[in-house]
Amino acid sequence: MRDILDRWTKTASRVAYDAYIFQVRRDSYELDGRKTHDFHVLEAGTWANVVAVTPDDEVVLVRQFRHGIEEMTLEVPGGLVEPGEDPALGAARELVEETGYVGEPPILLTAVSSNPAILTNRTHCYLVENAEQTEHQNPDPNEVLDIVRMPAAEIRAAMHRGEIHHALAYCALAAWLLREAARESFAGRRAAVSPFRRTARSPAWPANPLRQRVLAYLAIYSTADCGISDLTQVFFTKRLMSEILLARPLHRDSFEMRGKLGMTTGLVTEW
């Protein structure tokens, strides 16, 4: 059976409308040689948003009116990345413009397809720690934003009760919560040895091993300063998925990775 992608053939594409921040594109397709209805796609630039956490462990949010649903929303700061701008710099710029907050260099939490059914772009979600309000709020002329500082411990509940419902803000906060869970999971397990030295066999995973495998991968992937190469990340992704799909037992010391100098190895739990 042919791959699904090969069954689709684009026969025409044209811009139907230019709406400044995006263009409406009209695409014609054939499916298995049969003409389908036209598909309308929104060509948009890259977006970036940011979870900013203060030294007091509060998350900086903004409340604003959204014309699509004609309601007020509570969300993380974010916006359009300028052409040629690094998404991380765009996230930091949006944070200071919308809130006046500045913090440590942005850490990438995840990058997602904004809405692959109709949008062409991706949204890059970042974490900025130790954010403090050192600048004046300077939003766009057509933006009115209220700054809301919510204790980090209350974010999950606000998401559950629907107070935070913007999909991309929800995604950024969920990625941050996963990262925090991973950090807490490993906080008490780091061996008091060099992270590049192989040690004796680690104890078996605690209860709910599937969750621990996922958290292990997230912790590794999100640690920006650990020097893991893209190739190593690919290895861990494949290994993780095979363990999940085959439901094989996973021992922490079954993973070995090269240290920053490429000379030594260490256990996954020691990073």
Describe this structure in words.
The chain is of the alpha+beta class. The protein has three domains: 4-44, no CATH class; 47-164, Alpha-Beta Complex (Nucleoside Triphosphate Pyrophosphohydrolase), CATH 3.90.79; 188-270, no CATH class. 26% of the residues lie in helices and 30% in strands. It has helices at 87-99, 155-160, 167-187, 209-222, 230-246; strands at residues 8-18, 22-31, 34-35, 39-44, 47-53, 58-66, 71-75, 78-80, 101-102, 107-113, 122-128, 132-133, 146-151, 257-258, 265-266. The protein is globular, with a radius of gyration of 22 Å.
Mean pLDDT: 79
| SSE pattern, N- to C-terminal | EEEEEEEEHEEEEEHHHHEE
- Gyration radius (Cα, Å) is 22 Å
Q: Name the CATH superfamily assignment of the largest domain.
A: Nucleoside Triphosphate Pyrophosphohydrolase
Supply the CATH class of the largest domain: Alpha Beta
Number of DSSP E strands: 15
CATH architecture identity of the largest domain = Alpha-Beta Complex
User: Which regions have little confidence, pLDDT < 50, spanning 5+ residues?
Assistant: 191-207, 220-271
Largest sheet: 7 strands, mixed
Return the CATH topology of the largest domain.
Nucleoside Triphosphate Pyrophosphohydrolase
